[in-house]
Specification:
- It holds the Pfam family MFS_1.
- It is found in: Cell membrane.
- Keywords: Cell membrane, Membrane, Transmembrane, Transmembrane helix, Transport.
- This protein is an all-alpha fold and about 500 residues long.
- The protein has helices spanning about 15-45, 50-75, 80-100, 105-130, 140-165, 170-190, 205-220, 230-250, 265-295, 300-330, 330-345, 360-375, 375-385, 395-430, 435-460, 470-480, 480-490.
- The chain has three domains: about 1-195, Growth Hormone, Chain: A, CATH 1.20.1250; about 205-255; about 260-465, MFS general substrate transporter like domains (Growth Hormone, Chain: A, Up-down Bundle).
- Helix 1 runs parallel beside helix 5 and helix 5 (about 140-165) crosses helix 13 (about 375-385).
- The protein is globular, with a radius of gyration of 23 Å.
- It starts with 13 loop residues before the first helix and ends with a helix.
- Residues about 1-10 and about 480-490 have low confidence and may be disordered.
Protein backbone atom coordinates (compact mmCIF):
# COMPACT_ATOMS: atom_id res chain seq x y z
CA UNK A 1 0.00 0.00 0.00
CA UNK A 2 1.35 3.41 -0.98
CA UNK A 3 2.01 6.05 1.64
CA UNK A 4 -0.80 8.59 1.79
CA UNK A 5 -0.10 12.15 0.80
CA UNK A 6 -2.21 15.05 2.01
CA UNK A 7 -2.98 18.34 0.29
CA UNK A 8 -0.61 20.11 2.71
CA UNK A 9 2.48 18.29 1.43
CA UNK A 10 4.48 20.44 -1.01
CA UNK A 11 5.33 17.54 -3.34
CA UNK A 12 1.69 17.15 -4.39
CA UNK A 13 1.35 18.24 -8.04
CA UNK A 14 -2.28 19.33 -8.16
CA UNK A 15 -2.18 20.28 -11.86
CA UNK A 16 -0.95 16.82 -12.82
CA UNK A 17 -3.57 15.09 -10.65
CA UNK A 18 -6.33 17.20 -12.24
CA UNK A 19 -5.10 16.50 -15.79
CA UNK A 20 -4.82 12.73 -15.21
CA UNK A 21 -8.29 12.45 -13.70
CA UNK A 22 -10.01 14.71 -16.23
CA UNK A 23 -8.56 12.64 -19.09
CA UNK A 24 -9.86 9.42 -17.53
CA UNK A 25 -13.31 10.91 -16.88
CA UNK A 26 -13.52 12.37 -20.39
CA UNK A 27 -13.04 9.05 -22.21
CA UNK A 28 -15.33 7.26 -19.74
CA UNK A 29 -18.22 9.69 -20.28
CA UNK A 30 -17.56 10.02 -24.02
CA UNK A 31 -17.80 6.24 -24.27
CA UNK A 32 -21.37 6.29 -22.88
CA UNK A 33 -22.80 8.06 -25.92
CA UNK A 34 -20.48 6.89 -28.70
CA UNK A 35 -22.41 3.71 -29.53
CA UNK A 36 -25.84 5.34 -29.88
CA UNK A 37 -25.31 6.28 -33.54
CA UNK A 38 -23.27 3.14 -34.28
CA UNK A 39 -25.91 0.60 -33.19
CA UNK A 40 -27.38 0.05 -36.72
CA UNK A 41 -23.90 -0.73 -38.06
CA UNK A 42 -23.19 -3.14 -35.19
CA UNK A 43 -26.55 -4.87 -35.77
CA UNK A 44 -25.67 -5.42 -39.42
CA UNK A 45 -22.10 -6.55 -38.78
CA UNK A 46 -22.85 -8.95 -35.90
CA UNK A 47 -26.26 -10.03 -37.25
CA UNK A 48 -28.29 -9.07 -34.16
CA UNK A 49 -31.68 -7.39 -33.73
CA UNK A 50 -32.45 -4.00 -32.16
CA UNK A 51 -33.37 -5.50 -28.77
CA UNK A 52 -29.99 -7.20 -28.44
CA UNK A 53 -28.12 -4.14 -29.70
CA UNK A 54 -29.84 -1.92 -27.13
CA UNK A 55 -28.27 -4.02 -24.39
CA UNK A 56 -24.88 -2.56 -25.35
CA UNK A 57 -25.98 0.80 -23.95
CA UNK A 58 -28.33 -0.57 -21.27
CA UNK A 59 -25.74 -2.89 -19.70
CA UNK A 60 -23.19 -0.07 -19.55
CA UNK A 61 -25.66 2.17 -17.73
CA UNK A 62 -26.71 -0.63 -15.37
CA UNK A 63 -23.20 -1.67 -14.32
CA UNK A 64 -22.16 1.97 -14.07
CA UNK A 65 -25.15 2.73 -11.85
CA UNK A 66 -24.49 -0.32 -9.67
CA UNK A 67 -20.79 0.52 -9.20
CA UNK A 68 -21.26 4.18 -8.23
CA UNK A 69 -22.87 3.60 -4.79
CA UNK A 70 -20.04 1.20 -3.89
CA UNK A 71 -17.37 3.81 -4.63
CA UNK A 72 -17.82 5.51 -1.24
CA UNK A 73 -16.59 2.27 0.37
CA UNK A 74 -13.81 1.81 -2.21
CA UNK A 75 -12.52 5.39 -1.79
CA UNK A 76 -12.28 4.94 1.99
CA UNK A 77 -10.77 1.45 1.67
CA UNK A 78 -8.14 1.84 -1.07
CA UNK A 79 -5.61 4.54 -1.92
CA UNK A 80 -6.38 7.12 -4.58
CA UNK A 81 -3.58 5.85 -6.80
CA UNK A 82 -4.52 2.17 -6.58
CA UNK A 83 -8.22 2.83 -7.14
CA UNK A 84 -7.72 5.15 -10.12
CA UNK A 85 -5.22 2.81 -11.78
CA UNK A 86 -7.62 -0.10 -11.28
CA UNK A 87 -10.61 1.80 -12.67
CA UNK A 88 -8.80 3.13 -15.76
CA UNK A 89 -7.15 -0.27 -16.22
CA UNK A 90 -10.55 -1.98 -16.23
CA UNK A 91 -11.90 0.61 -18.63
CA UNK A 92 -8.94 0.16 -21.02
CA UNK A 93 -9.25 -3.65 -20.84
CA UNK A 94 -12.97 -3.47 -21.58
CA UNK A 95 -12.29 -1.13 -24.52
CA UNK A 96 -9.75 -3.57 -25.96
CA UNK A 97 -12.16 -6.52 -25.58
CA UNK A 98 -14.91 -4.53 -27.32
CA UNK A 99 -12.60 -3.46 -30.16
CA UNK A 100 -11.48 -6.99 -31.07
CA UNK A 101 -14.76 -8.77 -30.18
CA UNK A 102 -15.64 -11.39 -32.82
CA UNK A 103 -19.27 -11.70 -31.71
CA UNK A 104 -22.02 -9.99 -29.72
CA UNK A 105 -21.34 -11.92 -26.48
CA UNK A 106 -17.72 -10.79 -26.34
CA UNK A 107 -18.70 -7.21 -27.16
CA UNK A 108 -21.21 -7.27 -24.29
CA UNK A 109 -18.50 -8.54 -21.91
CA UNK A 110 -16.28 -5.68 -23.03
CA UNK A 111 -19.00 -3.16 -22.23
CA UNK A 112 -19.49 -4.68 -18.75
CA UNK A 113 -15.74 -4.42 -17.98
CA UNK A 114 -15.69 -0.86 -19.35
CA UNK A 115 -18.62 0.15 -17.14
CA UNK A 116 -17.08 -1.41 -14.02
CA UNK A 117 -14.12 0.94 -14.42
CA UNK A 118 -16.10 3.98 -15.58
CA UNK A 119 -18.46 3.78 -12.61
CA UNK A 120 -15.58 4.40 -10.22
CA UNK A 121 -13.86 7.24 -12.09
CA UNK A 122 -16.39 10.08 -11.72
CA UNK A 123 -17.12 9.81 -7.95
CA UNK A 124 -13.41 9.27 -7.28
CA UNK A 125 -12.42 12.36 -9.26
CA UNK A 126 -15.10 14.47 -7.57
CA UNK A 127 -13.96 13.36 -4.11
CA UNK A 128 -10.28 13.96 -4.89
CA UNK A 129 -11.00 17.47 -6.19
CA UNK A 130 -12.93 18.30 -3.03
CA UNK A 131 -9.98 17.09 -0.93
CA UNK A 132 -7.10 18.77 -2.77
CA UNK A 133 -8.81 22.15 -3.28
CA UNK A 134 -9.77 24.48 -0.40
CA UNK A 135 -13.42 25.55 -0.22
CA UNK A 136 -12.73 28.96 -1.76
CA UNK A 137 -11.33 27.27 -4.93
CA UNK A 138 -13.70 24.31 -5.24
CA UNK A 139 -16.04 26.10 -7.63
CA UNK A 140 -13.35 26.41 -10.30
CA UNK A 141 -12.29 22.81 -9.71
CA UNK A 142 -15.83 21.47 -10.02
CA UNK A 143 -16.28 23.68 -13.08
CA UNK A 144 -13.63 21.59 -14.82
CA UNK A 145 -15.67 18.49 -14.00
CA UNK A 146 -18.71 20.27 -15.44
CA UNK A 147 -16.77 20.83 -18.65
CA UNK A 148 -16.24 17.07 -19.00
CA UNK A 149 -19.83 16.15 -18.01
CA UNK A 150 -21.37 18.52 -20.55
CA UNK A 151 -18.93 18.39 -23.47
CA UNK A 152 -18.11 14.66 -23.71
CA UNK A 153 -21.71 13.39 -24.10
CA UNK A 154 -22.51 16.11 -26.63
CA UNK A 155 -19.71 15.35 -29.08
CA UNK A 156 -20.22 11.58 -28.74
CA UNK A 157 -23.13 11.11 -31.19
CA UNK A 158 -21.73 13.66 -33.66
CA UNK A 159 -18.26 12.10 -33.63
CA UNK A 160 -19.72 8.60 -33.80
CA UNK A 161 -22.00 9.48 -36.73
CA UNK A 162 -19.09 10.86 -38.72
CA UNK A 163 -16.79 7.90 -37.97
CA UNK A 164 -19.21 5.02 -38.64
CA UNK A 165 -20.18 6.58 -41.98
CA UNK A 166 -16.57 6.28 -43.12
CA UNK A 167 -14.99 3.53 -41.00
CA UNK A 168 -15.86 0.42 -38.99
CA UNK A 169 -17.67 0.81 -35.65
CA UNK A 170 -14.59 -0.79 -34.06
CA UNK A 171 -12.74 2.45 -34.83
CA UNK A 172 -14.73 4.10 -32.03
CA UNK A 173 -13.03 1.84 -29.48
CA UNK A 174 -9.62 2.14 -31.14
CA UNK A 175 -9.84 5.93 -30.79
CA UNK A 176 -10.61 5.72 -27.05
CA UNK A 177 -8.12 2.94 -26.25
CA UNK A 178 -4.83 4.90 -26.75
CA UNK A 179 -6.13 7.78 -24.63
CA UNK A 180 -7.07 5.40 -21.81
CA UNK A 181 -3.74 3.54 -22.02
CA UNK A 182 -1.66 6.75 -22.03
CA UNK A 183 -3.64 8.07 -19.06
CA UNK A 184 -3.10 4.73 -17.27
CA UNK A 185 0.68 4.78 -17.85
CA UNK A 186 1.00 8.39 -16.66
CA UNK A 187 -1.10 7.57 -13.58
CA UNK A 188 1.13 4.60 -12.71
CA UNK A 189 4.25 6.76 -12.68
CA UNK A 190 2.92 10.17 -11.59
CA UNK A 191 -0.29 9.92 -9.59
CA UNK A 192 -0.02 10.41 -5.81
CA UNK A 193 -2.40 9.51 -3.01
CA UNK A 194 -4.51 12.32 -1.58
CA UNK A 195 -7.26 10.65 0.45
CA UNK A 196 -7.12 9.32 3.99
CA UNK A 197 -7.94 5.64 4.40
CA UNK A 198 -10.49 4.61 7.01
CA UNK A 199 -10.58 0.84 6.42
CA UNK A 200 -14.39 0.42 6.58
CA UNK A 201 -16.11 -2.96 6.68
CA UNK A 202 -18.06 -4.12 3.63
CA UNK A 203 -21.64 -5.13 4.34
CA UNK A 204 -22.50 -7.63 1.57
CA UNK A 205 -26.24 -7.40 2.32
CA UNK A 206 -26.06 -3.66 1.57
CA UNK A 207 -24.15 -4.35 -1.66
CA UNK A 208 -26.83 -6.83 -2.75
CA UNK A 209 -29.71 -4.50 -1.88
CA UNK A 210 -27.95 -1.56 -3.57
CA UNK A 211 -27.41 -3.61 -6.73
CA UNK A 212 -31.04 -4.76 -6.85
CA UNK A 213 -32.36 -1.31 -5.89
CA UNK A 214 -30.46 0.97 -8.23
CA UNK A 215 -30.10 -1.71 -10.92
CA UNK A 216 -33.84 -2.47 -10.85
CA UNK A 217 -34.83 1.18 -11.13
CA UNK A 218 -32.34 1.92 -13.91
CA UNK A 219 -33.34 -1.13 -15.93
CA UNK A 220 -37.05 -0.64 -15.34
CA UNK A 221 -37.15 2.98 -16.41
CA UNK A 222 -34.72 2.46 -19.32
CA UNK A 223 -37.07 -0.30 -20.58
CA UNK A 224 -40.18 1.88 -20.25
CA UNK A 225 -40.27 2.28 -24.04
CA UNK A 226 -41.85 -1.21 -24.09
CA UNK A 227 -44.82 0.27 -22.25
CA UNK A 228 -45.54 0.77 -18.56
CA UNK A 229 -47.78 -2.32 -18.57
CA UNK A 230 -44.93 -4.57 -19.68
CA UNK A 231 -44.25 -7.19 -16.94
CA UNK A 232 -40.49 -6.65 -17.19
CA UNK A 233 -40.85 -2.93 -16.53
CA UNK A 234 -43.29 -3.40 -13.64
CA UNK A 235 -41.28 -6.16 -11.94
CA UNK A 236 -37.96 -4.32 -12.38
CA UNK A 237 -39.27 -1.08 -10.88
CA UNK A 238 -41.05 -2.94 -8.07
CA UNK A 239 -37.90 -4.91 -7.18
CA UNK A 240 -35.91 -1.67 -7.36
CA UNK A 241 -38.25 0.28 -5.06
CA UNK A 242 -38.53 -2.49 -2.43
CA UNK A 243 -34.78 -3.21 -2.46
CA UNK A 244 -33.95 0.48 -2.27
CA UNK A 245 -36.28 0.92 0.71
CA UNK A 246 -34.60 -1.99 2.51
CA UNK A 247 -31.17 -0.63 1.54
CA UNK A 248 -31.86 2.86 2.91
CA UNK A 249 -33.37 1.63 6.19
CA UNK A 250 -30.42 -0.73 6.67
CA UNK A 251 -27.88 2.09 6.22
CA UNK A 252 -29.30 3.97 9.20
CA UNK A 253 -28.80 0.91 11.39
CA UNK A 254 -25.15 0.27 10.44
CA UNK A 255 -22.16 1.87 12.19
CA UNK A 256 -20.32 1.86 8.85
CA UNK A 257 -22.99 2.21 6.10
CA UNK A 258 -22.14 1.45 2.50
CA UNK A 259 -23.71 4.78 1.52
CA UNK A 260 -24.28 7.43 4.21
CA UNK A 261 -27.82 8.81 3.84
CA UNK A 262 -27.34 11.07 6.86
CA UNK A 263 -25.83 13.61 4.47
CA UNK A 264 -29.42 14.58 3.67
CA UNK A 265 -29.80 15.95 7.20
CA UNK A 266 -28.01 19.02 5.86
CA UNK A 267 -30.68 21.19 4.24
CA UNK A 268 -28.35 22.95 1.80
CA UNK A 269 -27.02 19.60 0.53
CA UNK A 270 -30.57 18.21 0.15
CA UNK A 271 -31.89 21.23 -1.77
CA UNK A 272 -28.78 21.33 -3.96
CA UNK A 273 -29.15 17.63 -4.86
CA UNK A 274 -32.84 18.07 -5.79
CA UNK A 275 -31.97 21.01 -8.08
CA UNK A 276 -29.01 19.11 -9.57
CA UNK A 277 -31.18 16.08 -10.41
CA UNK A 278 -33.88 18.29 -12.00
CA UNK A 279 -31.35 20.18 -14.14
CA UNK A 280 -29.48 17.01 -15.15
CA UNK A 281 -32.80 15.34 -16.03
CA UNK A 282 -33.78 18.33 -18.17
CA UNK A 283 -30.39 18.20 -19.90
CA UNK A 284 -30.41 14.46 -20.66
CA UNK A 285 -34.13 14.38 -21.49
CA UNK A 286 -33.87 17.22 -24.00
CA UNK A 287 -30.81 15.60 -25.59
CA UNK A 288 -33.01 12.53 -26.19
CA UNK A 289 -36.10 14.43 -27.40
CA UNK A 290 -34.33 16.75 -29.83
CA UNK A 291 -32.91 14.05 -32.18
CA UNK A 292 -36.37 12.43 -32.37
CA UNK A 293 -37.91 15.72 -33.48
CA UNK A 294 -35.11 16.62 -35.90
CA UNK A 295 -34.78 13.18 -37.52
CA UNK A 296 -38.33 11.80 -37.42
CA UNK A 297 -40.48 14.94 -37.67
CA UNK A 298 -38.18 17.14 -39.77
CA UNK A 299 -36.51 14.24 -41.68
CA UNK A 300 -32.95 15.43 -41.18
CA UNK A 301 -29.90 13.26 -40.57
CA UNK A 302 -28.37 12.17 -37.26
CA UNK A 303 -25.41 14.37 -38.06
CA UNK A 304 -27.74 17.39 -38.35
CA UNK A 305 -29.30 16.68 -34.95
CA UNK A 306 -25.82 16.38 -33.46
CA UNK A 307 -24.70 19.67 -34.99
CA UNK A 308 -27.78 21.46 -33.65
CA UNK A 309 -27.00 20.56 -30.01
CA UNK A 310 -23.21 20.93 -30.42
CA UNK A 311 -22.95 24.76 -30.03
CA UNK A 312 -24.83 24.59 -26.72
CA UNK A 313 -22.59 21.79 -25.47
CA UNK A 314 -19.44 23.67 -26.46
CA UNK A 315 -20.68 26.85 -24.76
CA UNK A 316 -21.60 24.88 -21.63
CA UNK A 317 -18.15 23.32 -21.61
CA UNK A 318 -16.46 26.71 -21.98
CA UNK A 319 -18.64 28.32 -19.31
CA UNK A 320 -18.32 25.60 -16.65
CA UNK A 321 -14.84 26.66 -15.40
CA UNK A 322 -15.86 30.34 -15.65
CA UNK A 323 -19.05 29.87 -13.62
CA UNK A 324 -17.00 27.86 -11.14
CA UNK A 325 -14.77 30.86 -10.52
CA UNK A 326 -17.80 33.13 -10.19
CA UNK A 327 -19.19 30.70 -7.61
CA UNK A 328 -15.92 30.90 -5.63
CA UNK A 329 -16.36 34.66 -5.41
CA UNK A 330 -20.11 35.15 -4.99
CA UNK A 331 -21.64 31.77 -4.10
CA UNK A 332 -24.23 29.67 -5.92
CA UNK A 333 -27.51 31.48 -5.36
CA UNK A 334 -27.03 34.57 -7.52
CA UNK A 335 -25.45 32.87 -10.53
CA UNK A 336 -27.78 29.86 -10.35
CA UNK A 337 -30.90 32.05 -10.19
CA UNK A 338 -29.79 33.78 -13.40
CA UNK A 339 -28.93 30.41 -14.92
CA UNK A 340 -32.32 28.88 -14.09
CA UNK A 341 -34.13 31.89 -15.57
CA UNK A 342 -32.14 31.40 -18.80
CA UNK A 343 -32.74 27.65 -18.69
CA UNK A 344 -36.51 28.11 -18.33
CA UNK A 345 -36.50 30.83 -20.99
CA UNK A 346 -34.64 28.51 -23.38
CA UNK A 347 -36.87 25.49 -22.66
CA UNK A 348 -40.38 27.01 -22.88
CA UNK A 349 -40.10 27.82 -26.65
CA UNK A 350 -39.64 24.08 -27.35
CA UNK A 351 -43.21 23.52 -26.15
CA UNK A 352 -44.36 25.42 -29.26
CA UNK A 353 -42.43 23.72 -32.07
CA UNK A 354 -43.98 23.39 -35.53
CA UNK A 355 -43.01 21.70 -38.79
CA UNK A 356 -41.55 25.00 -40.01
CA UNK A 357 -39.74 26.24 -36.92
CA UNK A 358 -36.40 27.70 -37.99
CA UNK A 359 -33.43 25.41 -37.33
CA UNK A 360 -31.38 28.52 -36.52
CA UNK A 361 -33.97 29.49 -33.89
CA UNK A 362 -33.92 25.97 -32.43
CA UNK A 363 -30.12 26.02 -32.23
CA UNK A 364 -30.11 29.43 -30.51
CA UNK A 365 -32.77 28.41 -27.96
CA UNK A 366 -31.01 25.13 -27.23
CA UNK A 367 -27.73 26.99 -26.78
CA UNK A 368 -29.46 29.46 -24.43
CA UNK A 369 -30.80 26.68 -22.17
CA UNK A 370 -27.39 24.97 -22.10
CA UNK A 371 -25.79 28.31 -21.22
CA UNK A 372 -28.22 28.59 -18.32
CA UNK A 373 -27.47 25.03 -17.19
CA UNK A 374 -23.74 25.80 -17.09
CA UNK A 375 -24.52 28.43 -14.46
CA UNK A 376 -26.45 25.96 -12.30
CA UNK A 377 -25.19 22.38 -12.43
CA UNK A 378 -21.74 22.56 -10.85
CA UNK A 379 -22.20 25.70 -8.66
CA UNK A 380 -25.26 24.19 -6.95
CA UNK A 381 -23.55 20.80 -6.60
CA UNK A 382 -20.46 22.41 -5.08
CA UNK A 383 -22.56 24.51 -2.70
CA UNK A 384 -24.14 21.34 -1.33
CA UNK A 385 -20.88 19.40 -1.05
CA UNK A 386 -19.15 22.31 0.69
CA UNK A 387 -21.48 21.95 3.68
CA UNK A 388 -20.17 18.50 4.59
CA UNK A 389 -17.09 17.46 6.58
CA UNK A 390 -14.20 15.77 4.76
CA UNK A 391 -15.00 12.27 6.01
CA UNK A 392 -18.43 12.41 4.32
CA UNK A 393 -17.23 13.71 0.94
CA UNK A 394 -16.79 10.25 -0.59
CA UNK A 395 -20.37 9.36 0.39
CA UNK A 396 -21.73 12.70 -0.84
CA UNK A 397 -19.91 12.36 -4.19
CA UNK A 398 -21.24 8.82 -4.66
CA UNK A 399 -24.73 10.02 -3.72
CA UNK A 400 -24.52 12.93 -6.16
CA UNK A 401 -23.43 10.71 -9.07
CA UNK A 402 -25.98 8.00 -8.22
CA UNK A 403 -28.88 10.45 -8.06
CA UNK A 404 -27.82 12.03 -11.35
CA UNK A 405 -27.72 8.61 -13.01
CA UNK A 406 -31.05 7.41 -11.61
CA UNK A 407 -32.75 10.80 -12.00
CA UNK A 408 -31.60 11.12 -15.60
CA UNK A 409 -32.89 7.63 -16.39
CA UNK A 410 -36.28 8.19 -14.74
CA UNK A 411 -36.70 11.68 -16.18
CA UNK A 412 -35.87 10.55 -19.71
CA UNK A 413 -38.29 7.61 -19.45
CA UNK A 414 -41.09 9.89 -18.25
CA UNK A 415 -40.49 12.47 -20.99
CA UNK A 416 -40.36 9.78 -23.69
CA UNK A 417 -43.59 8.27 -22.32
CA UNK A 418 -45.29 11.68 -22.46
CA UNK A 419 -44.05 12.13 -26.03
CA UNK A 420 -45.29 8.66 -27.05
CA UNK A 421 -48.73 8.96 -25.43
CA UNK A 422 -49.32 12.50 -26.67
CA UNK A 423 -48.23 11.50 -30.20
CA UNK A 424 -50.58 8.49 -30.18
CA UNK A 425 -53.51 10.63 -29.00
CA UNK A 426 -52.79 13.20 -31.69
CA UNK A 427 -52.58 10.50 -34.38
CA UNK A 428 -55.96 9.12 -33.34
CA UNK A 429 -57.44 12.56 -34.01
CA UNK A 430 -56.34 12.24 -37.64
CA UNK A 431 -53.07 14.20 -37.60
CA UNK A 432 -50.16 13.06 -39.75
CA UNK A 433 -47.31 11.07 -38.21
CA UNK A 434 -45.02 14.10 -38.34
CA UNK A 435 -47.55 16.48 -36.77
CA UNK A 436 -48.44 13.90 -34.11
CA UNK A 437 -44.76 13.56 -33.18
CA UNK A 438 -44.38 17.34 -33.03
CA UNK A 439 -47.38 17.53 -30.68
CA UNK A 440 -45.83 14.84 -28.49
CA UNK A 441 -42.49 16.68 -28.45
CA UNK A 442 -44.27 19.90 -27.41
CA UNK A 443 -46.03 18.15 -24.53
CA UNK A 444 -42.77 16.58 -23.32
CA UNK A 445 -41.00 19.94 -23.42
CA UNK A 446 -43.95 21.50 -21.59
CA UNK A 447 -43.22 19.14 -18.68
CA UNK A 448 -39.50 19.92 -18.98
CA UNK A 449 -40.41 23.62 -18.76
CA UNK A 450 -42.35 22.90 -15.59
CA UNK A 451 -39.30 21.17 -14.12
CA UNK A 452 -37.18 24.22 -14.97
CA UNK A 453 -39.62 26.52 -13.17
CA UNK A 454 -39.68 24.15 -10.16
CA UNK A 455 -35.88 24.29 -9.95
CA UNK A 456 -36.07 28.10 -10.13
CA UNK A 457 -38.46 28.13 -7.16
CA UNK A 458 -36.25 25.73 -5.17
CA UNK A 459 -33.14 27.90 -5.61
CA UNK A 460 -34.68 30.43 -3.21
CA UNK A 461 -34.60 27.74 -0.49
CA UNK A 462 -30.84 27.33 -0.90
CA UNK A 463 -29.44 29.11 2.16
CA UNK A 464 -25.67 29.39 1.86
CA UNK A 465 -23.45 30.36 4.81
CA UNK A 466 -21.62 33.73 4.55
CA UNK A 467 -18.63 33.71 2.20
CA UNK A 468 -15.34 33.32 4.07
CA UNK A 469 -12.39 35.44 3.10
CA UNK A 470 -9.41 33.62 1.62
CA UNK A 471 -5.96 34.00 3.17
CA UNK A 472 -4.91 36.44 0.43
CA UNK A 473 -8.02 38.59 0.99
CA UNK A 474 -7.38 38.65 4.73
CA UNK A 475 -3.74 39.65 4.23
CA UNK A 476 -4.82 42.37 1.83
CA UNK A 477 -7.41 43.62 4.30
CA UNK A 478 -4.84 43.71 7.12
CA UNK A 479 -2.41 45.64 4.93
CA UNK A 480 -5.00 48.23 3.79
CA UNK A 481 -4.56 51.89 4.97
CA UNK A 482 -7.95 51.79 6.73
CA UNK A 483 -7.00 48.82 8.88
CA UNK A 484 -3.55 50.29 9.56
CA UNK A 485 -5.20 53.50 10.74
CA UNK A 486 -7.62 51.57 12.96
CA UNK A 487 -4.71 49.60 14.41
CA UNK A 488 -2.82 52.84 15.20
CA UNK A 489 -5.87 54.36 16.90
CA UNK A 490 -6.47 51.24 19.02
CA UNK A 491 -2.81 51.20 20.12
CA UNK A 492 -2.94 54.87 21.13
Amino acid sequence: MDNISTPNKPKLNITLIVAIMLAGAFVAILNQTLLVTALPHIMSDLNIDATAAQWLTTIFMLVNGIMIPVTAYLIDKFSTRALFITSVGLFALGTLIAAVSPNFGTLLVGRVVQAAGAGIIMPLMQTVFLVIFPKEKRGAAMGMIGLVISFAPAIGPTLSGWIVDSYSWRTLFYIILPIAVIDLVIAIFALKNVSELRNPKLDMTSVTLSTLGFGGLLYGFSSASKGWNDPTVIISILVGVVSLYLFVTRQFKLKEPLLEFRVFKDRVFTVSMIITVIVFTAMIGASTLMPLYIQNARHMTALHSGLIVLPGAILMGIMSPITGRIFDKYGAKVISTIGLILMAGGTIPFAFLTSTTSITYITIMFTLRMFGMSMVLMPVTTAGLNQLPTHLLSHASAMNNTLRQVGGSIGTAVLITILTNASSSSALLGNSTENALIHGTNMAFLVASGLSVLALILIFFLKEPPRKKTEKQEEKAKASPVNSKRKTISQS
